[in-house]
Amino acid sequence: MRIKTEELTRKFRVGSSEITAVNRVNLEINEATFIAIVGPSGSGKSTLLNLIGLNDQPTYGRVFIDETDASLISGRRRREIRLLRIGFVFQTFNLLPTLTVLENVELPLSLAGKSQEEQREKAMTLLENVSLGDRIYHRPKELSIGEMQRVAIARALANDPETIIADEPTGELDSKTAKETIDLLFDINRKRKTTVIVATHDEKIVEVADTTYTIIDGKLGLNTN
Ligand SMILES: Nc1ncnc2c1ncn2[C@@H]1O[C@H](COP(=O)(O)OP(=O)(O)OP(=O)(O)O)[C@@H](O)[C@H]1O
Ligand SMILES: [Mg+2]
Predict the structure, then answer these.
(1) Contact present, 153 and 185 (Cβ < 8 Å)
(2) What is the rounded CA–CA span in Å between residue 108 and residue 31?
(3) Alpha-carbon gap, residue 113 to 106, rounded angstroms
Protein backbone atom coordinates (compact mmCIF):
# COMPACT_ATOMS: atom_id res chain seq x y z
CA MET A 1 0.00 0.00 0.00
CA ARG A 2 1.40 3.37 -0.99
CA ILE A 3 0.40 6.29 1.18
CA LYS A 4 0.91 9.84 0.08
CA THR A 5 -0.16 13.12 1.59
CA GLU A 6 -0.43 16.46 -0.13
CA GLU A 7 -0.43 19.65 1.94
CA LEU A 8 -2.20 17.64 4.63
CA THR A 9 -3.58 19.97 7.29
CA ARG A 10 -5.72 19.44 10.38
CA LYS A 11 -6.89 22.34 12.47
CA PHE A 12 -8.84 22.09 15.70
CA ARG A 13 -11.03 24.86 16.99
CA VAL A 14 -11.44 25.00 20.76
CA GLY A 15 -13.49 27.95 21.97
CA SER A 16 -12.17 30.95 20.11
CA SER A 17 -8.67 29.57 19.52
CA GLU A 18 -7.51 27.47 16.63
CA ILE A 19 -4.72 24.91 16.71
CA THR A 20 -3.01 23.70 13.56
CA ALA A 21 -2.09 20.21 14.71
CA VAL A 22 -0.86 19.07 11.28
CA ASN A 23 0.40 21.76 8.96
CA ARG A 24 0.83 21.21 5.20
CA VAL A 25 2.46 17.84 5.44
CA ASN A 26 3.79 16.27 2.25
CA LEU A 27 4.79 12.71 2.83
CA GLU A 28 5.27 9.67 0.63
CA ILE A 29 5.46 6.21 2.15
CA ASN A 30 6.44 3.39 -0.12
CA GLU A 31 5.42 -0.22 0.32
CA ALA A 32 7.32 -2.36 2.80
CA THR A 33 9.18 0.50 4.48
CA PHE A 34 9.58 1.13 8.20
CA ILE A 35 8.87 4.77 9.03
CA ALA A 36 9.39 6.49 12.38
CA ILE A 37 7.77 9.81 13.20
CA VAL A 38 9.27 11.59 16.18
CA GLY A 39 8.51 14.90 17.83
CA PRO A 40 7.69 16.47 21.17
CA SER A 41 4.40 15.96 22.97
CA GLY A 42 1.62 17.87 21.25
CA SER A 43 3.54 18.19 17.98
CA GLY A 44 0.89 16.41 15.91
CA LYS A 45 2.04 12.78 15.70
CA SER A 46 -1.24 11.14 16.71
CA THR A 47 -3.24 13.58 14.63
CA LEU A 48 -1.13 12.73 11.58
CA LEU A 49 -1.53 8.98 12.17
CA ASN A 50 -5.29 9.41 12.55
CA LEU A 51 -5.42 11.14 9.17
CA ILE A 52 -3.21 8.60 7.42
CA GLY A 53 -5.20 5.76 9.02
CA LEU A 54 -8.47 7.25 7.68
CA ASN A 55 -9.68 7.81 11.23
CA ASP A 56 -10.09 11.52 10.74
CA GLN A 57 -10.68 13.98 7.91
CA PRO A 58 -8.24 16.73 6.98
CA THR A 59 -9.16 20.39 7.17
CA TYR A 60 -7.21 20.93 3.93
CA GLY A 61 -5.05 18.79 1.77
CA ARG A 62 -5.28 15.14 0.89
CA VAL A 63 -4.35 11.61 1.74
CA PHE A 64 -3.86 9.22 -1.17
CA ILE A 65 -4.11 5.47 -0.67
CA ASP A 66 -2.33 3.97 -3.63
CA GLU A 67 -3.37 6.51 -6.23
CA THR A 68 -6.83 7.18 -4.82
CA ASP A 69 -7.79 10.39 -3.03
CA ALA A 70 -9.16 9.13 0.30
CA SER A 71 -11.70 11.96 0.49
CA LEU A 72 -13.43 10.40 -2.54
CA ILE A 73 -13.75 7.00 -0.89
CA SER A 74 -17.14 6.26 0.69
CA GLY A 75 -17.47 5.74 4.44
CA ARG A 76 -18.17 2.07 3.94
CA ARG A 77 -15.05 1.58 1.80
CA ARG A 78 -12.95 3.56 4.29
CA ARG A 79 -14.08 1.27 7.09
CA GLU A 80 -13.22 -1.70 4.91
CA ILE A 81 -9.70 -0.37 4.28
CA ARG A 82 -9.29 0.20 8.02
CA LEU A 83 -10.44 -3.31 8.81
CA LEU A 84 -8.65 -5.24 6.06
CA ARG A 85 -5.66 -3.24 4.89
CA ILE A 86 -4.43 -1.36 7.97
CA GLY A 87 -3.58 -2.76 11.40
CA PHE A 88 -3.59 -0.39 14.37
CA VAL A 89 -1.44 -0.65 17.50
CA PHE A 90 -1.82 1.79 20.39
CA GLN A 91 0.22 2.88 23.38
CA THR A 92 -2.38 1.53 25.81
CA PHE A 93 -3.20 -1.53 23.66
CA ASN A 94 -6.99 -0.98 23.50
CA LEU A 95 -7.81 -4.62 24.14
CA LEU A 96 -11.39 -5.47 25.03
CA PRO A 97 -11.27 -6.38 28.74
CA THR A 98 -14.23 -8.75 28.77
CA LEU A 99 -12.93 -10.89 25.90
CA THR A 100 -10.21 -13.51 26.17
CA VAL A 101 -6.92 -13.07 24.37
CA LEU A 102 -8.12 -15.45 21.67
CA GLU A 103 -11.43 -13.59 21.25
CA ASN A 104 -9.63 -10.26 21.02
CA VAL A 105 -7.64 -11.53 18.05
CA GLU A 106 -10.68 -13.23 16.49
CA LEU A 107 -12.72 -10.05 16.55
CA PRO A 108 -11.31 -8.39 13.40
CA LEU A 109 -11.59 -11.73 11.61
CA SER A 110 -15.21 -12.00 12.66
CA LEU A 111 -15.87 -8.43 11.45
CA ALA A 112 -14.30 -9.43 8.13
CA GLY A 113 -16.86 -12.23 7.82
CA LYS A 114 -14.48 -15.16 8.35
CA SER A 115 -16.01 -18.45 9.52
CA GLN A 116 -15.68 -19.49 13.18
CA GLU A 117 -13.19 -22.11 12.17
CA GLU A 118 -11.03 -19.73 10.16
CA GLN A 119 -11.17 -17.19 12.98
CA ARG A 120 -9.93 -19.68 15.51
CA GLU A 121 -7.23 -21.13 13.32
CA LYS A 122 -5.84 -17.76 12.27
CA ALA A 123 -5.98 -16.27 15.76
CA MET A 124 -4.22 -19.31 17.22
CA THR A 125 -1.43 -19.11 14.64
CA LEU A 126 -0.93 -15.39 15.24
CA LEU A 127 -0.85 -15.86 19.01
CA GLU A 128 1.63 -18.71 18.69
CA ASN A 129 3.79 -16.46 16.51
CA VAL A 130 3.98 -13.93 19.34
CA SER A 131 4.67 -16.72 21.88
CA LEU A 132 1.25 -16.48 23.52
CA GLY A 133 -0.10 -19.88 22.58
CA ASP A 134 -0.35 -20.70 26.30
CA ARG A 135 -2.24 -17.54 27.25
CA ILE A 136 -5.22 -17.69 24.90
CA TYR A 137 -7.89 -18.03 27.61
CA HIS A 138 -6.51 -15.22 29.75
CA ARG A 139 -8.31 -11.88 29.95
CA PRO A 140 -6.15 -8.86 29.18
CA LYS A 141 -5.86 -7.94 32.88
CA GLU A 142 -4.33 -11.35 33.55
CA LEU A 143 -1.37 -10.58 31.28
CA SER A 144 1.87 -8.71 31.72
CA ILE A 145 2.11 -5.36 29.95
CA GLY A 146 4.46 -6.78 27.31
CA GLU A 147 2.06 -9.66 26.67
CA MET A 148 -0.82 -7.20 26.24
CA GLN A 149 1.11 -5.40 23.54
CA ARG A 150 1.87 -8.70 21.78
CA VAL A 151 -1.86 -9.54 21.78
CA ALA A 152 -2.52 -6.11 20.30
CA ILE A 153 0.05 -6.75 17.57
CA ALA A 154 -1.42 -10.19 16.84
CA ARG A 155 -4.84 -8.55 16.58
CA ALA A 156 -3.47 -5.87 14.26
CA LEU A 157 -2.18 -8.62 11.95
CA ALA A 158 -5.44 -10.61 11.92
CA ASN A 159 -6.55 -9.64 8.43
CA ASP A 160 -3.02 -9.57 6.95
CA PRO A 161 -2.86 -5.78 6.61
CA GLU A 162 -0.47 -4.19 4.16
CA THR A 163 0.28 -1.45 6.68
CA ILE A 164 0.64 -1.26 10.46
CA ILE A 165 0.13 2.10 12.12
CA ALA A 166 1.46 2.19 15.67
CA ASP A 167 1.10 5.17 18.01
CA GLU A 168 3.84 5.03 20.67
CA PRO A 169 3.71 1.23 20.88
CA THR A 170 6.52 1.10 23.44
CA GLY A 171 5.40 4.11 25.50
CA GLU A 172 4.13 1.99 28.39
CA LEU A 173 6.79 -0.71 28.24
CA ASP A 174 10.03 -1.24 30.14
CA SER A 175 13.19 -1.40 28.05
CA LYS A 176 13.19 -5.19 27.73
CA THR A 177 9.58 -5.56 26.58
CA ALA A 178 10.02 -2.45 24.45
CA LYS A 179 12.87 -4.19 22.66
CA GLU A 180 10.75 -7.32 22.13
CA THR A 181 7.98 -5.19 20.65
CA ILE A 182 10.38 -3.35 18.36
CA ASP A 183 11.94 -6.64 17.20
CA LEU A 184 8.46 -7.98 16.51
CA LEU A 185 7.44 -4.94 14.45
CA PHE A 186 10.75 -5.05 12.59
CA ASP A 187 10.31 -8.75 11.86
CA ILE A 188 6.80 -8.17 10.56
CA ASN A 189 8.13 -5.44 8.29
CA ARG A 190 10.99 -7.51 6.92
CA LYS A 191 9.30 -10.90 6.64
CA ARG A 192 5.77 -9.95 5.63
CA LYS A 193 6.78 -6.78 3.78
CA THR A 194 4.21 -4.93 5.85
CA THR A 195 4.68 -1.18 5.85
CA VAL A 196 5.17 -0.02 9.46
CA ILE A 197 4.52 3.56 10.49
CA VAL A 198 5.36 4.34 14.11
CA ALA A 199 4.99 7.54 16.11
CA THR A 200 7.48 7.32 18.92
CA HIS A 201 9.83 8.89 21.42
CA ASP A 202 11.85 5.70 21.46
CA GLU A 203 15.39 6.03 20.07
CA LYS A 204 15.52 2.26 19.63
CA ILE A 205 12.71 2.44 17.08
CA VAL A 206 14.46 5.27 15.26
CA GLU A 207 17.53 3.03 15.00
CA VAL A 208 15.68 0.32 13.06
CA ALA A 209 13.55 2.62 10.89
CA ASP A 210 14.37 3.03 7.20
CA THR A 211 13.31 6.67 7.35
CA THR A 212 12.65 9.00 10.28
CA TYR A 213 10.66 12.20 10.14
CA THR A 214 10.45 14.84 12.82
CA ILE A 215 7.26 16.77 13.41
CA ILE A 216 7.35 20.06 15.28
CA ASP A 217 4.25 22.22 15.66
CA GLY A 218 2.55 20.20 12.95
CA LYS A 219 5.36 20.71 10.43
CA LEU A 220 7.05 17.59 9.15
CA GLY A 221 10.72 17.44 8.24
CA LEU A 222 12.95 14.62 7.10
CA ASN A 223 15.75 13.59 9.44
CA THR A 224 19.06 13.40 7.68
CA ASN A 225 21.41 11.50 9.92
N1 LIG B 1 -9.60 16.54 19.24
C2 LIG B 1 -8.83 17.60 19.47
N3 LIG B 1 -9.37 18.81 19.71
C4 LIG B 1 -8.60 19.88 19.91
N5 LIG B 1 -7.26 19.88 19.91
C6 LIG B 1 -6.66 18.71 19.66
C7 LIG B 1 -7.40 17.50 19.43
N8 LIG B 1 -6.53 16.51 19.23
C9 LIG B 1 -5.31 17.04 19.33
N10 LIG B 1 -5.37 18.36 19.57
C11 LIG B 1 -4.23 19.29 19.72
O12 LIG B 1 -3.42 19.11 18.56
C13 LIG B 1 -2.05 19.12 18.89
C14 LIG B 1 -1.40 17.83 18.44
O15 LIG B 1 -1.89 16.76 19.22
P16 LIG B 1 -1.40 15.26 19.02
O17 LIG B 1 -2.21 14.42 19.90
O18 LIG B 1 -1.41 14.96 17.57
O19 LIG B 1 0.11 15.35 19.53
P20 LIG B 1 1.18 14.20 19.72
O21 LIG B 1 2.40 14.60 18.95
O22 LIG B 1 0.58 12.90 19.41
O23 LIG B 1 1.53 14.29 21.27
P24 LIG B 1 1.93 13.13 22.33
O25 LIG B 1 3.40 12.82 22.07
O26 LIG B 1 1.74 13.78 23.66
O27 LIG B 1 1.05 11.95 22.09
C28 LIG B 1 -1.99 19.35 20.40
O29 LIG B 1 -1.73 20.71 20.62
C30 LIG B 1 -3.36 18.95 20.89
O31 LIG B 1 -3.70 19.69 22.02
MG1 LIG C 1 0.16 11.18 20.54
Answers:
(1) yes
(2) 23
(3) 11
Q: Tell me how far the alpha carbon of residue 50 lies from the centroid of ligand 2, in angstroms.
A: 10
Q: Which CATH class is domain 32-50+75-211+218-222?
A: alpha beta
- Which residues does residue 86 pair with via DSSP β-bridges, in sequence order? 163
- 205, 170 contact by CB (below 8 A): yes
- What are the extents of the domains in the chain? 32-50+75-211+218-222
Bridge partners of 5? 27, 63
Question: Ligand 1 atom closest to Cα of 43?
Answer: 21
Instruction: Please report which ligand is nearest the Cα atom of 43.
Output: 1
Q: Is the CB of residue 220 below 6 angstroms from any atom belonging to ligand 1?
A: no
Instruction: Say yes or no: CB of residue 149 within 6 Å of ligand 1.
Output: no
Nearest CA owner, ligand 1 atom 17: 46
C-alpha 208 – ligand 2 centre gap (Å): 20
Evaluate if pTM is beyond 0.85.
yes
Residue in 133, 205, 130, 139 with CA at minimum distance from that of residue 166: 205
Separation between Cα atoms, residue 22 and residue 41, nearest integer Å: 13
Per-residue pLDDT of the chain (225 residues; tens, 9 = 90+): 999 999 999 999 999 999 999 999 999 999 999 999 999 999 999 999 999 999 999 999 999 999 999 999 999 999 999 999 999 999 999 999 999 999 999 999 999 999 999 999 999 999 999 999 999 999 999 999 999 999 999 999 999 999 999 999 999 999 999 999 999 999 999 999 999 999 999 999 999 999 999 999 999 998 865
